[in-house]
Specification:
Blueprint (H helix, E strand, L loop, with lengths): L2 E5 L2 E3 L5 E8 L8 E6 L6 E6 L6 E3 L7 E6 L4 E6 L8 E7 L7 E2 L3 E5 L2
Parallel strand pairs: 2-11
Antiparallel strand pairs: 1-3, 3-8, 4-5, 4-9, 5-6, 7-8, 9-10, 9-11
Length: 117
């Protein structure tokens, strides 16, 4: 079955960096667009970044442009998110999902990112 397992979250000070990973299994990873979302307590789910099947198309949420970078390794069936210059407002549960916008059909359990001094 489809599995998406995120890792790499943790506590980081403002201005710091974290690198998240999402290990995919149970489907042909290279055939799907992939997306990172995040959700903070009391807030709606927010798009962080999306990447096309062949990495030719990448999109970012407005709040993370220039600070976060999404990538993928189709040979390893893994999605990545490099997060730099982290801010307190970046705190939340980050999860990866298979698909893009209306085609999202599976998501992982998420990894918690907390930005605090």
């Amino acid at each position: 079955q489809v599995q998406l397992v995120e890792s790499g979250g943790g506590l980081v000070q403002p201005g710091g960096s974290l690198a998240l990973s999402c290990a995919a299994s149970g489907f042909t990873f290279s055939l799907y667009d992939m997306t990172w979302f995040r959700q903070a307590p009391g807030k709606e789910r927010e798009l962080v970044a999306g990447i096309g099947r062949s990495t030719g198309v990448i999109r970012y949420g407005n709040s993370v442009k220039g600070r976060f970078f999404v990538s993928r390794d189709n040979a390893k069936s893994t999605l990545y998110l490099q997060m730099n210059s982290l801010k307190a407002e970046d705190t939340g549960l980050y999860f990866c999902a298979r698909g893009w916008l209306a085609t999202v059909d599976y998501r992982g359990q998420g990894t918690q990112v907390t930005v605090s001094s």
